[in-house]
């Protein structure tokens, strides 16, 4: 009995026990506070954001009952409609580059771009989660579908790809095309790439399974990747693209990372991907 006690009290065993406890504590912390590591919203009061939107030529996008949904240009171009689901940081208004990018396209019908805002981001109340995001995104999409039958496309940026693919799956017959920017297969794969020593896939409550959702969608899918992406490894985007069995187009920008992709993507790429999506 004395020998057994001495073994368990040896310095090596105590170090191992300490490391195990630290690891388990880290796993618990990551599990409990995981959404703090997923969502990085920037918030402001809606009045201030409306002033900022006016300065860059945008106005609030509201549902028929007056609920705030995001931002859009005033009036309507009367062509294709694009709903943008942005990434996990900031808020929708700082994605105005999508509005300007699609407004500048010369070929084909003009684009009306809607910047969807997540609950808990910008000037919108709520708490971020996959369930809440998807419910709000479906409601916003339905509000556009009720207005008219103009072509409807979805753009998902990074985490927003998980929202876009889910909406496409749920409204497959109404969505004419999906544009994914720096997407991934599923969120657990991104987490595992950054924290390979943690059981991320088991811990996650918000899964954003793009691969599973795209399997339920039969329309065209365009994918834009940053070859040097340090946040969402480009290999995950390629894997998602390769696994999709429908009509698809991939462009990967060399020398670009997650945060420089927009600056390094030329007009020709946007023209090509947009034309692919609307091609009958």
How is this structure best described in words?
It is a single chain. With 280 residues, the protein is an alpha/beta fold. The protein is built from 13 helices and ten strands. It has helices at residues 2-8, 11-32, 34-38, 46-55, 96-103, 130-147, 160-170, 187-194, 200-203, 210-214, 234-243, 261-264, 267-278, and strands spanning 40-41, 59-62, 68-72, 80-85, 89-90, 111-116, 152-157, 177-181, 221-226, 248-253. The strands form two sheets. The chain has an eight-stranded mixed beta sheet with strand order 2-3-6-4-7-8-9-10, sandwiched between helices. Strands 1-5 form a two-stranded parallel sheet. Helix 6 (130-147) packs across helix 7. The mean pLDDT is 90.
Protein topology:
Layout: H1 2-8, H2 11-32, H3 34-38, E1 40-41, H4 46-55, E2 59-62, E3 68-72, E4 80-85, E5 89-90, H5 96-103, E6 111-116, H6 130-147, E7 152-157, H7 160-170, E8 177-181, H8 187-194, H9 200-203, H10 210-214, E9 221-226, H11 234-243, E10 248-253, H12 261-264, H13 267-278
Parallel strand pairs: 1-5, 4-6, 4-7, 7-8, 8-9, 9-10
Antiparallel strand pairs: 2-3, 3-6
Structural key phrases:
globular; alpha/beta; two-stranded parallel sheet; 280 residues; eight-stranded mixed beta sheet
């Amino acid at each position: 009995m004395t020998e057994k006690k001495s073994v368990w009290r040896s310095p090596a065993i105590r170090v191992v026990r300490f490391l195990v406890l630290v690891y388990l504590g880290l796993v618990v912390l990551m599990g409990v506070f995981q959404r703090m590591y997923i969502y990085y919203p920037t918030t402001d009061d809606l009045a201030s954001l409306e002033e900022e939107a006016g300065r860059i030529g945008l106005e609030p996008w509201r549902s028929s009952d007056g609920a705030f949904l995001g931002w859009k240009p005033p009036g309507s171009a009367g062509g294709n409609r694009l709903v943008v689901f942005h990434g996990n940081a900031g808020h929708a208004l700082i994605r105005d580059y999508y509005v300007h990018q699609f407004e500048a396209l010369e070929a084909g019908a003009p684009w009306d771009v809607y910047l969807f805002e997540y609950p808990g981001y910008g000037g919108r109340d709520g708490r971020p989660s996959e369930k809440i995001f998807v419910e709000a995104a479906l409601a916003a999409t339905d509000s556009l579908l009720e207005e008219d039958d103009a072509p409807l496309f979805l753009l998902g940026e990074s985490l927003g790809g998980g929202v876009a693919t889910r909406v496409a799956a749920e409204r497959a017959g109404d969505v004419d095309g999906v544009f994914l920017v720096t997407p991934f297969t599923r969120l657990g794969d991104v987490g595992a790439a950054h924290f390979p020593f943690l059981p991320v896939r088991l811990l996650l409550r918000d899964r954003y399974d793009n691969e599973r959702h795209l399997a339920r969608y039969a329309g065209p899918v365009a994918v834009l990747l940053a070859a040097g992406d340090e946040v969402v490894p480009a290999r995950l985007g390629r894997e998602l693209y390769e696994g999709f069995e429908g009509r698809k187009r991939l462009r990967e920008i060399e020398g670009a990372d997650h945060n420089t992709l927009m600056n390094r993507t030329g007009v020709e790429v946007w023209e090509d991907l947009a034309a692919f999506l609307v091609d009958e």
